[in-house]
Amino acid sequence: MGICASSKRVVQEQECDENVVYVMDEDCGGGAGEEEGDGHGASPAACRKVASLFSQKGKKGPNQDAVILCQGFGMEDGVFCGVFDGHGRCGHFVSKLVRDCLPFMILSHRNALLLADDDDSSAFSDASPSSSSTDGSGGGSSPSPAPAQLLDEWRVACANAFDAMDRELKLQANLDCNFSGTTAVCAIKQGKDLIIANLGDSRAVLATMSDTGYLTAVPLTTDQKPSVPREAERIKRCNGRVFALKDEPSVARVWLPDEDCPGLAMARSLGDFRLKRHGVVSEPEVTHHRVGRGDLFIVLATDGVWDVLSNEEVVSIVCATPRKQHASKAVAEAAAQRWRTKYPSSRVDDCSAACLFLRDQDWGSSIAPAKAKAAAAAARAPHGHC
């Protein structure tokens, strides 16, 4: 199996880092690059109007997190945003490979589904006069799919792509994924529709604001940890073992049937092939959200963030950040500081975040009603702004 994608990668100007990339998929079109006058792809400045990405290395070795933003994904103003948290000896290689390949695999499977639907419907086109417009122009356009149909299409595309990505990892001759792998949490924005695909224990949280300016953090994913009953039941049915170590009684891990290894702290992942026969799966949970007028942004982040900061704290930190392009850095720095104060004897984990903005208005004016409330909550989480 091979991977082919036509794209232009734009690296961050300041926090230049191989862990974070911005991509314009040229096959999808897109107007971001045209705003800058080159017509060939998204500039960093244009990308930062859409999202803020940042990855901060911890104290456990190489940074195993990877973050990506793809513009022009599926439609002219479509967006793909993904955060990946590698683990194991080769985790930093796995997360980057998945980051670079998975978005285009998802889009390829989605396009294949659409082509198959078109082929099926063309057989009935001659007998379907209702497909013509009723305004007399003679040219109709296909109606937008209903939310249930949209979710089904993306769910199948994501499931197929994650499976294909897992098989692709297994074919990598120079990459040992027996005890290495990665999580993946992805947000796909198509107009007002958001598709969230989650695998593992990274997380997506929506910030929404009421008419009175009250800010709420809404989880869009569920952490797929071995402690979750339905995840543990599946693993145990496949003869895997789930238990916590004595010095980490709150952290359930997955173990082989007859060996006290590897102690994986999540129930689903890409890679980790020795555990695939024992209940660890690569099937993502895919959900749909229709963007409402109060929805401000989505935060995607690795467990290095969520292990020490609550959903509400993260949303408040983003909302209180003066410049939206610095929002993800503020979150990562707050998490790193919290690690040092909450777990002084532990090594700080890698902390990575992506903030996908859902409003086109100026950052200050669009969230002004929520800023005062957010500032007090954010102050309780130590961090510094850029």
UniProtKB/TrEMBL annotation:
Q: What is the lineage of its organism?
A: Eukaryota, Viridiplantae, Streptophyta, Embryophyta, Tracheophyta
InterPro entries attached to this UniProt entry: PP2C, PPM-type-like_dom_sf, PPM-type_phosphatase-like_dom
UniProt EC number: 3.1.3.16
Catalytic activity from the UniProt record: O-phospho-L-threonyl-[protein] + H2O = L-threonyl-[protein] + phosphate; O-phospho-L-seryl-[protein] + H2O = L-seryl-[protein] + phosphate
Molecular function as annotated in GO: metal ion binding; protein serine/threonine phosphatase activity
Cite the entry's keywords alphabetically: Hydrolase, Magnesium, Manganese, Metal-binding, Protein phosphatase
What CDD domains does the record tag this protein with? PP2Cc (cd00143)
Belongs to which family? Belongs to the PP2C family.
Organism the protein comes from:
Digitaria exilis
Q: What class of enzyme is it?
A: hydrolase
**What name appears for this protein in its UniProt entry?**
protein-serine/threonine phosphatase
